[in-house]
Design a protein that fits this description.
CATH class of the largest domain: Alpha Beta
Helix content: 25-40%
Shape: globular
CATH architecture of the largest domain: Alpha-Beta Horseshoe
CATH topology of the largest domain: pyruvate-formate lyase- activating enzyme
Number of domains: 3
Distance between the termini: 50 Å
Number of strands: 19
CATH superfamily of the largest domain: tm_1862 like domain
Largest sheet: 6 strands, parallel
Strand content: 15-25%
Radius of gyration: 23 Å
């Protein structure tokens, strides 16, 4: 049997896309290998959100060139850099066999066949029209044995923030019909999954026949599903209805990733973010009132063009005020075709060393706050969904709390169990402890075939 290796860069959407690629390859009699040196097919699934994304891809391709030379392996590039660069990649990398964009995962078998049989170098990067787009669907059987899985509910973004390349690499927003989402979740639950994460570039702008809040509530009602998560969100889509869903449905996990990007209203306006800091805080206050103890995480860009020291201090103050559980912070880097990249010289680029120094200051503050949150858990008993063995110590188990905090612990409960763990130690990034009780055993698959969640559109929708 032929073997494949997928090198995934970037976000959860890319991780999900790689899973769908794997399923397509398994139907072609390919099997995965953890070692690229043993692969007959190597795919780089790329991300173009951060600086030097193309350089990282080219560096990896250089390493895999030796595998192509020694084994005759096929080399392909997918994802956002592929969509961004298109046929230019084939000119830049003469030993590259094919390039395909995120909309063309379903064509992967056809692309590989053309490379193998017709000896073509192939480019498939056309966006699929909204009316014709077919969302990649998780194959439940390949998820058997897992505890948690991603489910795509929409793709693309219509916001066109001045720093973001997503509209150019993922296209306009397209939402998946809600019956398809619920049927996929039900299929996953039948093979034992306990948690699903609904994903999309701008997930809570979902328009698949019902509101996103209604989709969350329906998903939580699928038999066997115990936790529902989602990512990523835009503050202007944090509606009262969505906040109310957090209040009424405990299976919606108490964790919300709500990117703020900056603490300065002037910079937010330049970023084309259509909210002020005050409006962001008002939404957040309502959410925390509806779900006390909810963990809030965020994204922050440091050193956006024109950012002054005073405006950076506003971001530090916002971090202290909100007290995020965690944040993903990065220095600004210009992305192709974006408004900020085109106007950076006019707005005033921030020197790289200043951006790095500011980022280090911000991350130091966040590490302290994250550590205070985790230290407050020491001595408490927390609920953990067991996902398997710890990556750091095979004798321990690994799982997450409802707030999405990582826990490594001594215990013997199988994956899919819900257990109580007594927390004994903590770092800013994880909790450690020991299992003291089993709350729920894994589900017994298969669950009843009938889907009990109603699929009709309510009259008020």
């Amino acid at each position: 049997m032929k073997r494949y290796f997928i090198h995934t860069f970037g976000c959860q959407m890319n991780v999900n896309d790689s899973l769908r690629m794997s399923e397509a390859l398994s139907k072609m009699s390919y099997v995965p290998t953890p070692e690229p040196e043993n692969a007959d097919l190597i795919i780089l699934n790329t991300c173009s959100i951060r600086e030097k994304a193309e350089d990282k891809m080219l560096s990896a391709l250089g390493r895999y060139r030796a595998v192509k030379a020694s084994r005759g392996a096929i080399l392909g590039v997918g994802g956002c850099v592929a969509q961004q660069e298109k046929d230019k990649l084939l000119k830049k990398v003469p030993y590259l066999d094919f390039v395909f964009g995120p909309d063309n995962i379903a064509k992967l078998p056809e692309v590989i066949s053309r490379v193998q049989d017709a000896r073509e170098r192939v480019v498939e990067t056309a966006f699929v029209d909204s009316e014709e787009y077919v969302f990649p669907r998780a194959d439940a059987e390949t998820s058997r044995g897992k505890v948690t899985e991603f489910v795509t509910v929409m793709k693309g973004c219509d916001n066109v923030c001045s720093f973001c390349v997503v509209p150019h690499t993922r296209g306009r927003e397209v939402s998946r019909a809600f019956p398809e989402v619920l049927l996929e979740v039900a299929d996953l639950a039948r093979v034992g999954l306990r948690e699903v994460t609904l994903i999309g570039q701008n997930v809570n702008s979902y328009q698949g026949g019902i509101s996103f809040a209604q989709l969350l509530l329906r998903t939580a009602e699928v038999p066997g599903i115990e936790r529902v998560r989602f990512t990523t969100s835009h503050p202007h889509d944090l509606s009262d209805e969505l906040i109310e869903a957090f209040r009424t449905q405990p299976k919606i996990a108490p964790h919300f990733h709500l990117p703020v990007q900056c603490g300065s209203d002037r910079i937010l306006k330049m970023m084309r973010r259509d909210y002020t800091v005050v409006q962001y805080l008002e939404r957040l206050e309502k959410l925390r009132a509806a779900r006390p103890g909810i963990a809030i995480t965020t994204d922050i860009i440091v050193g956006f063009p024109g950012e002054t020291e005073e405006e950076f201090e506003m971001t530090l103050q916002l971090t202290e005020q909100v007290r995020y559980d965690n944040q993903f912070s990065f220095v600004y880097s210009p992305r192709p075709k974006t408004g900020a990249a085109l106007r950076e010289k006019d707005w005033g680029p921030v020197p790289h060393e200043v951006k790095v120094a500011r980022l280090e200051r911000l991350q130091k503050v966040q590490r302290r706050i994250s550590g205070e949150y985790t230290q407050a858990q020491v001595g408490l008993d927390v609920e953990v969904m067991v996902e398997g063995r710890s990556r750091y110590d095979a004798t321990k188990r690994f799982g997450r709390t409802p707030e999405n905090r990582t826990v490594n612990f001594d215990g013997d409960a199988p994956a899919g169990s819900f257990v109580t763990v007594h927390i004994e130690r903590a770092t800013p990034n994880q909790l450690q402890g020991k299992q003291v009780a089993v709350l729920k055993e894994p589900t017994v698959a298969p669950l009843p075939v009938e889907l009990t969640v109603p699929l009709h559109v309510p009259a008020e929708a």
